[in-house]
Structure formats: C-alpha cells, structure tokens
Design goal:
The complex is a heterodimer of chains A (219) and B (323). Chain A is of the alpha+beta class and 219 residues long. Chain A contains 8 helices and 4 strands. With 323 residues, chain B is mostly helical. Chain B is 64% helix and 2% strand. Chain B has 16 helices and 2 strands. In chain B, α9 runs antiparallel to α12. Chain B starts with a helix and ends in a 6-residue tail after the last helix. Classes of the chains: A alpha+beta (219), B mainly alpha (323). The interface between A and B is large, with 65 and 79 residues.
Chain lengths: 219, 323
C-alpha cells in the first residue's frame, strides 16, 4: 500500500507534466501561409514589425514572415517529437489541451448571408446576427454551427465551403419550394474603430465567396 | 523525512469530498446541457450526420469508439446522444461506488468524445475542457458525498468520507494550465501592454460570437481597455493563483505565503474569474465554455469552507424556536 502511494504521486505528477507540455503555447492553427494573407493577420504582423523596429530590429514584410515561418516550423517540429509518445494518453483519456482562445481579435470578420431568388428577384433570408433575416436561425446561430460557419470564410476551408452551400441549398429547397435559386456568400468588412463608430462612419466591406445553387422552383 | 516523502504525504492528505462532489455535479450538468442543446436546436443533422444522410460534410467513420460501433449512421449518432445524456445524469447524481462511478465517468467521456470528434469544424475548446473534467472524475471517483451512492450506503445525501487532496489539486491545476497558456498565447498587439488594448473591443464586434450587435461598446471604449488589461494580466499570472491555492491549505510558504493569505489572493482570482465568465456569457455565445469553466471553480474553495457556508445558510433559514 505504501509503494502504491509513491507510484500514485508519480502518476499524478506525470499527468501534470503531460498536460503542461501539451498546453504550452504553439502556433498550431497558424501554420498555414494562406491564412497569413488575411488582413487581420497582416495587421498583426505590421504592428509587430513596427514594434521590433522600435527595438532596433528592422525587417521587411517578407523577411518578417520568412523568419517567423522558420522559427515556428522548427518549434513545431520539436514539439511534435516531444508530444508523440504522449499522444495515446491525450487521445484515449480525453486530455487534449488546446487553449488558443481569442489570441488575436479578428478585425476583418465575415458575416454569412443567404439569399433566395423568387420571381426573378433576390431576397435576403438569413444574415448573421440580424433580427430581421432569420431563416433557419435556430441552426445557424447554434454555437457549433457558428464555429463551422466562421471557418468557411477562410481560404483553407475552400474545399468544405461548397459542401456547406450544398447543404444550405437542400434546406432552402424544403423551406422555399417556389424559389428558383439560392445564393450563399459572406460580407467581409473591416471592423470600425471606436472613434469611427462614434462618428457614424459607415461600414466598409465586400461580398466574398458568392456561390449559387439551383433550387426546384419554376423560373 | 525527505522532500519526496513530504510531497507524497501532502498529496495524500485526506479531506472531505464536498468540493469535488460539486465539480462532479456541475460537470454532469454541463454534459446534459451541451448534448441537450444540440438536440434541442435541431443542428444534429447538419453537424453530426454524414453528408450522405443530410449533413454538411463527409465525416468518415468517426473516432475509435464510433468506428467500433460501425460508423456514424443517424441511428447511432442519435443513440449515442441519448446514452451520453443518460450517463451525464449518472455523473450528476453521483451513481456508483469507487469502481462503478469511475466506469460511468469514463463511459460518459468516451461517448462524448465519439460525438464531439465527429466534426472538427463544429466544436471548440469547451469539448476538450469537458473531456478533461470527466477524466479527472475518472481518476478521483468523487461519489462519496452529495451523491446517490452516499444515500445508498449511509442513508444521507452527505457523508464525511474523505478523498485524498491530489484529486482536487488536479482540477485546480487543470484550470491554471488552461488560463495561463491561453494568456501566454495572447501576443496580439491588441492584447499586450504597450499596445492600444483594444482586444476586448474588437472581440465584442466579431459577429461570430455576438448575441447581438455591440457597436454601443464604442461609447464605453475605455472600460473595454481596462477589461483587456485586467483579463490579460489575470490569465498571464494565473500560476500565482495556484501558489495562492497551495499556501491557503496550511500556514506554510514563508513570507510570500503569509502575504498571499493576507491579501486573499486566491479569493481575488476566483472572483475576477467568475465575473469574467459571467460577463462573457452575457455578451457572447461561446457555447458551453462558460459553464464548463465554472465547473472547475468549486475546487478552489476548500471543503471546510463549503461546509461552513452551508452551515451558516442552514442556520439562517431555520425557523426561530419558540421560547
């Protein structure tokens, strides 16, 4: 019994070490060069280049990204090697640690829009966070669906986005039997600064990723 | 006595299971709420059914448990949701003795993972927090008090049977790891001191997580800057909370320990954390993350503090005796 107390303490400490290693900061979700092109990410890079320049470390945008990529790749390689033997513990004991929550605000967000075509005119039936255009909002506004929709506006999810549009079309076909087409898109915009909001500056943005599917209604 | 032996003794120090029982009750409730909300909203088909059955994506065959069962057909997904909620209820109620309660917690965790892992696009950190909590319940087996097991074996909902201290320490440690490492990753120019401290303002403007439009926050922008720096410092310095928790268990820790106790640092972190989570829940829809996080909090309050508070409450609600 006494030996078990010692073994148990060792196991408790091993658990603490394993989850600490797994949780230690890592740019896992950021190891994607296409995601680096997003204006939110570019704005962060610019702010850090300016800060580094203030500390006497001048870098061009290309140099900064290249150096960052090299450092991050090396670090991630070492991290993978360290965590490899522990993966079964994370996988089967449910002890994954991924706490990259709101690490940087997304200053160029995208709002989902769904339109249906009836009698030759497009009608907005759903828009993210709208009180007016609320078709299927019980589903679109569920937190798990929000998480999915958030991803589909990013280039790295370009393969899944058309499947999402297909799914929206199936739902629209049932709810709008008279509609001829459905159009899914995102309104991507720069978040206004507090001063701009107070001054009443209008939101500037553009519709991106428009995709159209034919429904069953008569044209 | 060696330092190692002292550590073993310290970890094994017996204490009442009240704090951990509250963690268990809340965790069971969060499992019920999380799966129940998916079912209630009607989002199951979109996110957890395969594209062949009306879902958005090709989901493959799922994790090892779903594979063993033959893959995520709609019937299996629906059945798994029902089973997970049933098991979550078992966790909440505190069913089973030392072995059965661990089996129930483990089965809850595996069933929950088999659902959450179906679609990596439709989840969040809350899924991992819930499975971590359930695993800690597997390790601890906390059905000694505030449980059906206590009622069955002692005839009372509460019992004085003790648990080793390490069981609660693991819950506290999990909270600290989560908060500290999320803070250490907030290196955005909008978060760190020396920048414009606009992180909270911009996060509140993100349509993905808003309950409704938060443009009005622009008129109280300085408050969001204060919120940004307070929440960043609170997360980054979370290891101090762990230290404050450890020294609050005794009279040791030297001068630092005395100051941490005197300044009520453990209680301060706890209050700020609760305000932070309740505030986030009021303004944003981040799923069950708030409630899953709050499951960790009872562990920061010592069992004797819960019992003292309960005693006070019971006395204050007693009808006055006739004299």
């Amino acid at each position: 019994m006494s030996a078990w107390r010692h073994v148990r303490t060792l196991l408790v400490l091993a658990h603490m070490l394993a989850i600490s290693l797994m949780a230690f900061p890592a740019p896992s979700g950021g190891m994607n060069r296409s995601a680096w092109k997003d204006p939110s990410v570019q704005a962060e890079f610019k702010a850090w280049r300016q800060r580094l320049a203030g500390w006497g470390y001048e870098l061009t945008a290309e140099q900064f990204e290249e150096e960052l990529w090299q450092v991050a790749s090396t670090y991630m390689g070492a991290r993978t090697a360290v965590l490899q033997p522990l993966n079964p513990y994370f996988m089967y004991a449910g002890t994954w640690q991924s706490w990259r929550m709101f690490v940087g605000p997304h200053t160029h967000p995208a709002r989902l829009r769904v339109e249906v075509e009836r009698d030759g005119a497009w009608e907005l039936v759903y828009e993210g966070r709208s009180w007016e255009h609320t078709w299927n909002s019980a589903i679109f506004d569920h937190d798990r669906m929000r998480s999915a929709v958030f991803r589909y506006a990013w280039a790295r999810y370009a393969r899944t986005y058309p499947r999402f549009v297909d799914w929206v079309a199936r739902e629209a076909r049932e709810d709008f039997p008279e509609a001829t087409r459905v159009r899914v898109s995102f309104f991507k915009y720069r978040t206004r600064s507090p001063a701009e909001v107070r001054a009443g500056v209008p939101v500037e943005g553009e519709v991106i990723l428009p995709k159209v599917r034919t429904l069953g209604g008569e044209p | 006595m060696s330092a190692w032996s002292r550590l073993v003794d310290w970890m094994d120090t017996p204490e009442s299971g009240t704090s951990l029982a509250l963690v268990r009750i809340l965790t069971g409730g969060v499992v019920l709420r999380t799966i129940g909300a998916v079912w209630w909203s009607g989002v199951t088909q979109a996110i957890w059914y395969d594209a062949a059955h009306g879902g958005i994506r090709d989901l493959g065959r799922g994790n090892f448990l779903m594979k063993m069962l033959g893959g995520p057909t709609p019937e299996r997904v629906d059945g798994m949701m029902a089973l997970t909620m049933l098991l979550g209820l078992g966790v909440l109620l505190g069913m089973g003795g030392p072995i059965a309660s661990r089996v129930i917690a483990f089965a809850t965790m595996q069933c929950f993972m088999s659902l959450a892992d179906l679609n990596g696009h439709a989840g969040g950190s809350y899924d991992e927090l819930i499975t971590n909590l359930l695993w800690l319940l597997v390790l601890a087996g906390p059905t000694k008090t505030l449980s059906l097991e206590s009622l069955r074996t002692t005839g009372s909902w509460t019992s004085g049977r003790s648990l080793a201290r390490w069981t609660r320490l693991l819950v506290v440690f999990q909270a600290i790891v989560m908060y500290a490492t999320t803070g250490w990753q907030k290196v955005s120019a909008h978060w760190v001191p020396g920048g414009d401290l606009s992180a909270l303002y911009y996060i509140l403007q993100q349509p993905t997580w808003q309950h409704f439009d938060h443009s009005w926050v622009a008129w109280v922008y300085p408050l969001t800057q204060v919120g940004t720096i307070v929440s960043w410092l609170w997360e980054v310095t979370a290891p101090l909370w762990l230290l404050a928790f450890v020294v609050s268990l005794g009279q040791g820790g030297g001068r630092i320990g005395r100051w941490l106790r005197l300044l009520h640092v453990r209680e301060g972190y706890l209050v700020v954390g609760m305000i932070f989570h309740v505030g986030v829940a009021a303004m944003m829809n981040i799923g069950p993350f708030t409630w899953a996080s709050l499951c960790l909090y009872p562990a920061f309050i010592h069992p004797w503090e819960w019992e003292r508070a309960w005693g006070r409450l019971a006395r204050s609600t007693e009808p006055p005796t006739a004299t």
